[in-house]
Amino acid sequence: SLGALTIGVVTRPFSFEGHRRSSQAEQGIDNLRDEVDTLIVIPNDRLLQIVERRTSMMEAFRIADDVLRQGVQSISDLVAIPGFINLDFADVRAVMANTGSALMGVGVASGETRAADAARAAISSPLLETSIVGAKGLLLNITGGEDLTLFEVNEAAEIVTEAADEEANIIFGAALDESMEDEVRVTVIATAFDDKPKKKRRDQTELEIKPFSAEDLEVPTFLRKRE
What we know:
Elements: E1 7-12, H1 19-33, E2 38-43, H2 57-80, E3 83-85, H3 89-96, E4 100-110, H4 114-123, E5 137-144, H5 150-163, E6 169-176, E7 183-191, H6 221-226
Parallel strand pairs: 1-2, 2-4, 5-6
Antiparallel strand pairs: 3-6, 4-7, 5-7
């Protein structure tokens, strides 16, 4: 009701957690989708494709939580962290306001072709339930150490751009992270997939503010409303 941009990042339970838990989660996701501008759903089952076979249960759930953190951080980093290319909140709103479901992919790579490898990994990430092809909105964040070059940034951006819709609104950011040595991280959040329009959010409510006196505070609310 305040007109704030709201973004949900949630996980879908593992299949082994049972049908009842899965049904409850789906109902919650459906309800939440109508209350937020953009909803990113990470299916936990997809994590099985990016963890080793001997990964413990505790570690698997920690990885699931970390994926959620990456989703939230990648969005906030676009605005909050100074970089080569800075964005403001209006840029993020332009891509994520009232767009419905969204997909998130993260790719990290090192070596000679690290930027291209990270970009390809991001758009083909196991965390993506479908391809980003057809997305009308894209948030693209490229992060690397001090040795990140302009050529690498351009190369990664081109790979992601070519995979998106020709008319897609692409918001791009590039930042430095001194802790990343010989690594590049590419995060892609794709929005505006739905063919049918998302339900319109409730209209904003304007509250009329009236002055009051100290005496009014001694009068019960239901009596003040009658006056």
